[in-house]
Design goal:
The protein is α/β, with parallel strands linked by helices. The chain is 41% helix and 20% strand. The protein is built from 15 helices and 16 strands. The longest helix is centred in the C-terminal third of the chain and has 28 residues. The C terminus is likely disordered.
Length: 377
């Protein structure tokens, strides 16, 4: 299985800058995928998302299968047409949300049985059903295998059990997906923080053969330092000629550290979730627009940005919108945050091409404020 063409244009240490070419457009890597949970990147139009520089977005199998249902999305022409996004879409398998949101009644070798968090209705998600939803009904460009996720810390026995079940589900996902010309299937490496389990997972996945490989089971409670230590070895176990996707990450400092260690693709709800709660991400770390010190600050969030939300509105105005609980404040901050994340990816692509990634990493870390309950103090 060859997968979409993936050309690595430059490397700097382990960091890679490249281009993943799909029938719906090219994805510049390192890439950040805004999360379009329920067929929308929250608070933003697709034109606003496009304006940030996003090449690809993520859709959520769990949420869409429950509402409006994957079958309805199919009747409406597929997810791209339904939400008016004609660029690439990656869909997750639904496994993470089933584990975190659904009231699970049973996990067996066959499938996960769970109750909807919306209305309590009973559903069964198997590797085969996940492939049907993602590939045939939603029509995503990049499909993720169904895996079993365990939160950290976990016992070695539990981590091993979930990793091996994920590998078996990976084979079933591959069998159900088959061979497709215009869609790709990614496998998911599991194994917690254990190098031996990560190695076994990577070897099993490569025996099956996927178009790309994700690093799963991180950013689930282990902390930044432990995640970085796992990324010191986990990406190196995956094929160097295929994309590497770190799922659910994350904070800008996490993304920079992961790119430095050889990761190509990321997704996280953080930019829009932060924006809905009055937080803006900047080159000097996150700031809380609720803070009184912005009440008469006439400067914009980023005067050099091409995005109106970052360039055209004062912090004083944004402070007023957030304090007044105006919807526009959530829109503008979400738009700005996504633009910042895309600008961060662009600067890393340039740094890798210039051979200055190590210097970029050090300078970025030095400027970041610590995050906490009040990130502007």
């Amino acid at each position: 299985m060859a997968g979409f063409p993936f050309a690595i244009a430059a490397t700097d240490g382990k960091a890679r800058a490249g281009l993943l070419s799909t029938p719906r457009g090219e994805i510049r890597t390192p890439a950040f995928m805004p999360v379009g949970t329920a067929g929308t990147v929250k608070a933003l139009t697709v034109d606003q998302v496009t304006a940030t520089g996003a090449d690809i977005i993520l859709g959520n199998t769990y949420h869409l299968m429950l509402r409006p249902t994957a079958e309805r999305v199919k009747r409406m022409g597929g997810l791209h047409r339904f939400m008016r996004w004609e660029r690439p879409i990656l869909t997750d398998s639904g496994g993470f949300q089933v584990m975190s949101l659904g009231k699970i009644s049973k996990v067996t070798e066959e499938a996960v049985t769970f109750q909807s968090h919306i209305d309590g209705s009973r559903h069964v998600l198997s590797p085969e059903r996940s492939m049907e939803i993602q590939a045939d009904l939603l029509g995503s460009d990049i499909v993720m295998q169904l895996d079993e996720l365990v939160a950290l810390p976990a016992t070695p026995e539990r981590a091993a059990e979930a990793m091996r079940r994920s590998a078996r589900w990976g084979q079933r996902s591959k069998n159900a997906f088959g061979e497709r010309d215009v869609q790709n299937l990614f496998g998911i490496q599991q194994g917690g923080l254990d190098p031996a389990l990560r190695r076994e997972s990577a070897e099993r996945l490569q025996e099956i053969g996927f178009d790309g490989y994700a690093i799963g089971g991180l950013a689930v409670g282990e902390g930044h330092q432990a995640m970085c230590e796992a990324l010191d070895f986990a990406p190196d176990m995956l094929p160097p000629d295929r994309p590497r996707y770190l799922m659910g990450v994350g904070k800008p400092i996490d993304i920079v550290e992961a790119v430095y260690r050889g990761v190509d693709m990321f997704d996280c709800v953080l930019p829009t979730r932060s924006g809905r709660h009055g937080q803006a991400w900047t080159w000097d770390g996150p700031i809380n627009l609720k803070n009184a010190r912005f009440a008469e600050d006439e400067a914009p969030l980023d005067a050099a940005s091409d995005v109106p939300a970052s360039r055209d509105y004062s912090k004083a105005y944004l402070h007023h919108l957030v304090k007044s609980d105006e919807i526009l404040g959530q829109v503008l901050l979400s738009w700005h945050n996504l633009a910042f994340f895309q600008a961060l990816m662009g600067q890393m692509r340039t740094a890798i091409a210039d051979g200055t990634m190590a210097a970029f990493r050090a300078a970025f870390a030095a400027r970041q404020r610590p995050t906490g309950p009040d990130t502007s103090a």
